Amino acid sequence: MGGRTIDRAVGRSAGGLGLARRPLGLALALALSACAGEQTGAVLVPAAVTVPAEAPRTTGRARTATDADHAKLVASFGGEHRAPAVLRLLTEVTDRLVRASDRPDQTYAVTLLDAPVVNAFALPSGRLYVTRGLVALAGDTSEIAAVLAHEIAHVTLSHATARTELELRAQLVSRVVADVLNDPVTGAQLQSQSRFALARFSREQELEADAAGVRTLAKAGYDPFGAGRFLTALNRTLALKSGGGTAAEPDMLATHPGTAERIGLVTRAARRTGAPGVGTDDRAAYLAAIDGLAYGDNPGAGAVRGRRFVHPSLGIAFEVPDGFAIENTRNAVLGTTGEGSRRLLFDQVEAKDDQGLDAVLRATWNDAIDPASIELRPIAGHPAATALSRGKDWTFRLAAIRVGEATFRLIMAAKGATDPDPAFRRWTASLAAVSPAETAALKPLRLQIVIASSGSADDLARRMAVADRALDRFLVLNGLERGVPLKPGQSYKVVVE
Fold first, then answer.
1. Cβ(179)–Cβ(244) below 8 Å
2. With helix as H, strand as E and coil as C, how does 370-422 read?
3. Can you tell me whether residue 204 is helix, strand or coil?
4. What are phi and psi of 493, to 5 degrees?
5. Other C-beta atoms within 10 Å of 249: how many?
6. Do strands 109-113 and 127-131 pair parallel, antiparallel, or not at all (unpaired)?
7. Widest CA span of the chain, in angstroms?
8. How many angstroms separate the CA atoms of 427 and 339, rounded?
9. Nearest alpha-carbon partner for 370 in 358, 382, 383
10. C-alpha span between 428 and 56 (Å, rounded)
11. What single DSSP character describes residue 301?
């Protein structure tokens, strides 16, 4: 990530700090139908540009995922999570939904992924994937059934196959126009237009899968309004991560419609199936199954504890200055202050053994670096280079630090012309080795199902082992609105150590 991306990156969540991860192959990527992407109907190439008759066709070219693809996919999400009660529930729900689907003969297999992100997706073969982060967010069986019904709809409607066909055709058409017909300008124009068309196509597929999923949900006897409740929880989670109080709306290249749009669609679809209360939500059974489920980061891939980040596998830890809340994502540790005026990023970068650390900073940073600010000095006993970069709206402090054979970047940004150097120096100076005792003491957080003894949400929120905004996180996790009292004697989710 460079200078133009840090202010957009903070607040996104995508899993653990996956420093050794590599992208999946093209065939698998094109075959994947994910709840975080892809969809039906748009014309791939707008009429403004004529597709040459010489352009090859790709209809009928199948793309299937192999066991090796499955293994790569699972590994990219931290492996499988062992939670027998949860997996048994997911399998039972899937079987019930399949019997009510348009393709009751289709075979499915569910994999529970060891990732804290909220995500689910499907392969055309019938493999369904659900992260433990999504399972933790769902409030009852009808909500998790809504997610699975949505993914089953992607399979029964052959969304991934249609999307793969369009993607391959777009690539071939632009290549033929540019190379074979010697018209690179039109080829580039086609490629650009196809990106927008594919994104629109994906959004339409998501809405189609939402509607079909609600119908299947109702036919299977589940509460069809569970779909809207889960999407509402997802929207609130996104807003909580953004720090701005509202979830960001998608841009023209987004592969998913806005969550608010999806909530409206599934709510209307649910109303067409009957009044609220028609189906079952099986809340008690769901909470019993997820009691004790791991929550948040897998400590082996790095973990946040308050203002401290610890990565036992890399053997490093650091502590951020007061006022910062940090999050461990798939590719970086991101942080921001409450008002958003200061942000930070920690990640690993590729560097040659003979490459100077000042050269690493220049090679991995998009904006101009003040040459006079470059300083080569040890940080926490490790070789390091630091520098200053001033953008139009932000001022950045950068560091590249070599720890053993690995090279890390630490970037802090302050809005405006204020130099964040004092806080930046405190942060970089906190970098230290992880002691064996700290590694041994680092246990994953987990969900605990507790019974409310009073109507106060604050009482249970105080038990939440989270770094910040404990009450807000408790409310989102339990699908509750601020100010609405708890029901004494009813079960709720809290996060504990």
1. no
2. CHHHCEECCECCECEEEEEEECCCEEEEEEEEEECCEEEEEEEEEECCCCCHH
3. helix
4. -95, 135
5. 11
6. parallel
7. 74
8. 19
9. 358
10. 55
11. G
Global pTM value:
0.70
How far, in Å, CA of 136 to CA of 130, rounded? 11
Chain-centroid distance of CA 458 in Å reads: 29
User: Residue 437 carries which side chain, given as an amino acid letter?
Assistant: A
Query: pLDDT of 251-288, one tens digit each?
Result: 333 445 677 888 998 899 999 987 677 789 999 999 99
Cα gap 233→479, rounded to integer Å: 6
Place of tokens 């060891």: 114
Tokens in use for 261? 């749009």
What would the pLDDT profile of 193-222 be if each residue is shown by its tens digit?
555 555 554 677 788 888 888 999 999 999
Report the DSSP pairing between strands 432-433 and 127-131. unpaired
Q: Residue 339 has which token pair?
A: 């008002």
> Tokens 């401290």, residue?
308
Instruction: Provide DSSP, 354-371.
Output: T--HHHHHHHT-SS---G
Bridge partners (DSSP) of residue 396 are: 389, 413
Distance CA 266, CA 270 (A): 6
